[in-house]
Amino acid sequence: MEEVLVSGLSRGELKTHVANGKIIRIGRGIYTWREPTPMEVARILQKRWPGIMIAGNSAVQLYSKKEMTFPLKFAYRHILSGSQWFEVERTRQKTRFTFEGIPVQNPLLAAAAVDDDLAVTMLETRYQNRRGKQAIEKDLGCIARVPARVRELVNKSAVGADSEAERKVVRELQRRGKKVQVNHRIGPYLWDIVVGKVAVEIDGYDFHKAEDLGTFVKDRWKGNDAALRGYTVLRYSGSCVKHHLVDVVQQISEAHKGRTNFGSLAHESVWRWHWLLARCEAEPIYG
Questions:
Q1: Quick one: pLDDT at residue 210?
Q2: What counts of helices (H) and strands (E) characterise the chain?
Q3: Which of 33, 46, 122, 233 fits a 20 to 30 Å CA distance from 85?
């Protein structure tokens, strides 16, 4: 880091070198010999002002496993002047989150600073798989008063889902006002999606074609167990979700309401209409 920062020059020399393009002014009293990377700027500021945290859109980018972009967003307990390279907002927030030793804003509060699509993508990345629900509850517990928008974003997100196919189904069900539980335990087994008394599995072919006999047997007993506990069991492939999402969600919704439309296309012989079986080039369009 020291080789990037400019030191030992007088004010006049700094001004001249900036004018000649030999050095770059990052902020008040901060100059570099070359254009720094976003992470280098974050480290420079953290060293200058310990406790400053990456926040807002920059934190969302980190949690989404993307490269940060300028201007970086920070939060700090004191007022600081920013520049074209970074912006700082004053905050009383405390953080227990770090990235490579640099404090980072609570992901849930960072999500509230960006638009819904970015926020939802980040939350689903951060809180995926069966540990996601536990993790998000822990992070919510770090916030004294959870803003209404944060709760709204959490409710829009497919927290705990293992795959994009599962997330698509969860989002669509939530848009229909359904209360969805992800990676939910019924008896001794975890189910991908549970809506009321409907238990849903999204089976990816690449995973299940390699399953051993033990897994095959377990899945049969898992389905039987849920059925005997009073659940309607529905199973779909990844291709069903990819090409027939509307039908998948409609069928789950109908099962949840207990009113199934057996006259719909989804209840005709599947080989007549399913993309994979009928060799269609695109998802059929129907009402």
A1: 52
A2: 13, 11
A3: 122
The token pair that represents 73 in the structure block: 């967003």
Query: What mean pLDDT comes out for the span 16-37?
Result: 96
pLDDT at 36 over 60: yes
Q: How many residues does the chain have?
A: 287
Beta 86-90 vs 72-76: how paired, if at all? parallel
* Domains of the chain as residue ranges with CATH: 164-287 (3.40.960.10)
- Rounded CA-CA distance 47/42 in Å is 9
Kindly state the DSSP code that residue 5 receives in the 8-state scheme: B
Q: What is the pTM of this model?
A: 0.85
Strand partners, 25: 31
Q: Strand (E) positions, the chain?
A: 24-27, 30-32, 53-54, 72-76, 86-90, 97-99, 102-104, 181-186, 189-195, 198-203, 232-237
Q: What backbone torsions phi and psi does residue 105 show, to the nearest 5 degrees?
A: -60, 145
**Secondary structure class of 210 (helix, strand, coil):** coil
Model confidence at 3, pLDDT cuts 50, 70, 90, reads confident
Residues 6+ apart with CB under 8 A from 85: 26, 27, 36, 41, 70, 71, 72
pLDDT of residue 1: 61
C-alpha neighbours within 13 Å on the C-beta side of residue 273:
13
Q: Indicate whether 229 pLDDT > 90.
A: yes
DSSP 114: S
Please, are residues 75 and 88 in contact by the beta-carbon 8 Å criterion?
yes
CA distance 251 to 259: 10
Dihedral angle computed from the Cα positions of residues 151, 153, 159 and 164, in that order, rounded to the nearest 10 degrees: 170
In the sheet with 102-104, reading across from the earlier edge strand, the strands are 86-90, 72-76, 53-54, 102-104, 97-99
- End-to-end CA distance of the chain: give it in Å, rounded: 61
